[in-house]
Design brief:
By secondary structure, this protein is mainly alpha-helical. 57% of the residues lie in helices and 0% in strands.
């Protein structure tokens, strides 16, 4: 059981770290033509940028299927990646971008900081001027309450 928990957390953690690097160096680099659809207003439910979610989801599915027979580390890492993807969808797509209007603005300190960091990321629609590329690792400056 401990092995399952550890490898689920490893899969989740690797998604945050690799997601940060992929976002900063690939999505805001050579894959900008795909990712820029996320930085532009859209009237559609889906954007070309959603292909990245399909890619990461596919990796998770392959790991789960390959590790299913023995419930080994591959299975649990796939579960961790899937958990990350689920929480990403809830936090990023629903809470922050309101692609589905289920929740009000965040009230917890962490969710407010996450919201501010993502707003800072979207202050530009240019490839090179963005900041704050992770989702769960929020830089500490975004925890400061804005004066009202």
């Amino acid at each position: 059981m401990m092995e399952a928990i550890v490898f689920t957390l490893v899969g989740f953690g690797l998604m945050e770290l690799s997601g940060w690097a992929i976002h900063k160096y690939l999505m805001h680099g050579p894959l900008w033509m795909i990712h820029k659809t996320h930085h532009q207003p859209s009237k559609f439910a889906f954007e070309l940028n959603d292909l990245f979610s399909v890619l990461f989801g596919s990796i998770a599915i392959v790991l789960i299927i390959v590790g299913l027979k023995e419930f080994d580390y591959r299975f649990w890492m796939g579960v961790g990646i899937s958990l990350y993807g689920f929480l990403y969808f809830i936090l990023h797509d629903i809470l922050i971008h309101r692609r589905i209007k289920w929740f009000q603005k965040p009230k917890s300190k962490f969710l407010k900081a996450l919201f501010r960091a993502h707003q800072a990321h979207h202050r530009t629609n240019k490839k090179d001027d963005a900041v704050s590329f992770g989702l769960f690792l929020v830089p500490k400056e975004y925890y400061k309450e804005e004066e009202e």
